[in-house]
What does this fold into?
Amino acid sequence: MTSVSRDDVAIDVRGLHKSFGDNHVLRGIDFHVGRGEVVCVIGPSGSGKSTLLRCVNRLEEASEGSILIEGEDIRDPDADVDLLRSRIGMVFQSFNLFPHLSVLRNLTIAQRRVRRRSEEEAVEVARRNLARVGLAEKIDAFPAHLSGGQQQRVAIARALSMDPDMMLFDEPTSALDPELVGEVLEVMRDLAGEGMTMMIVTHEMGFAREVADRVVFMDAGVVVEEGPPEAVLVAPQHERTRRFLKILDDV
Amino acid sequence: MTRRQRERLVRGTLYASAAGAVVLLAAIADWPLIRRNFFDPDIARSMWPDVLFIAARNTLLYTTLAFAFGLALGLVLALMRLSTIAPYRWFATVYIEVFRGLPALLTIFLVGFGIPIAFQVRWPILLQITLGLGIVAAAYMAETIRAGIEGVPKGQMEAARSLGMTRTRAMVSIIIPQGFRLIIPPLTNELVLLIKDTSLLFVLGTTPATKELTKFGRDVLAARANATPLIVVGAVYLLITIPLTQLVAVLERRNARAR
It folds into this structure.
């Protein structure tokens, strides 16, 4: 899926630059995710991979370049960013559930306020998505009473409840205790199996190898190499990729 | 002597001398005089029922009005201070700096006399009270509310925006409710301060029906030349403020559990 026609592209990033003051974090990124494709972005910390992901739904303002979401430029001043964002599910490293709302309200509030769904429909959608992540019985719980893994699964269900066209994951398992990582990856694996378009910034190489259609290795603000997981993770072409993977193997 | 024994000895000596001082004071005090002047049951009885049904009621009414006004205006000012629009920020900053720096008594005079004289307006006493106390209260509460809003983790706004909420919607549904939970303790302090500041309102000139606690007590003091009304009125203040601070402690504990 390396050469896709533009019609099949969900996320199309061209010539992206991003600076924080003097710090030039992204230095000309060309990147795309095809419809139904699962792309894992890997790389050392500080490589800009999270910044790239956050530019895609404009949580960060890019400095230069274009970002097309299903053909619509999210950087266009006239673009309805709120509408575009509501079609892009986002999952954070730190979950970011709303602690003052029950699990059910976490899942319904944006459906009600953004999608303008009726209460019955929103609750119905919420129930369905909670079941999907295996937490139907936690519907009335508050986030503080859930384990990290459960919170992240609720966060995924919250994003799914908006019926997004694509999902962004920003190191979704990095804040979890090791024994809780599996349950979250399981949910993500199911999602990938259902054909969801996914962009995943992750350090879980095993998961990337198993689930990704394509792996993108970034370092120092550029895409160093990309391709099928077997190619990038098993037989990397670039020295930098090899060094990164070796460090991961050593720990 | 072990260290423990030495500590016990020091502490015992301290307690003994404190107790001795109390006993000595009690022995030399003129108890009948104190009782007559501070704890005269006839005077205390004569204050009933007005002390509760007029004075305390008015204190609570004035506090509620000023607090509600201060809270509403304070929220608006806090949001203006956090706004991306510069003139809003300037206005809020100037307002907060000016009215935090002025004594409440001055704004009470301003609202009660300054403006009415200048513009030949007569506005109702309750409006004077609300503005006189609320204008300053709003400045303080604005800063408290701003701190609450800024205390909500950044990820909350990001999560809300990622779901497609506008900034305003995210503020109303996600940030402000959480911010207010954080500031229940300082807001209650503001409330207690306001309760006490209502004692300044006597300068507006009060009728028997609009007296609050302090003015009520002071009038009885003047009429009877006796300090008992101050004790009675002070006890009523504490009856109001202590349960309030206790309630906050309970709410805080519940919040801590919900986190």
Chain A touches chain B at residues 57, 59, 82-83, 85-90, 92, 94, 96-100, 109-110, 113-115, 142, 144, 155, 158-159, 162 (CB under 8 Å). The two ends of chain A are 32 Å apart (CA to CA). Chain A has a mean pLDDT of 94. Residues 151 and 232 of chain A are 32 Å apart (CA to CA).
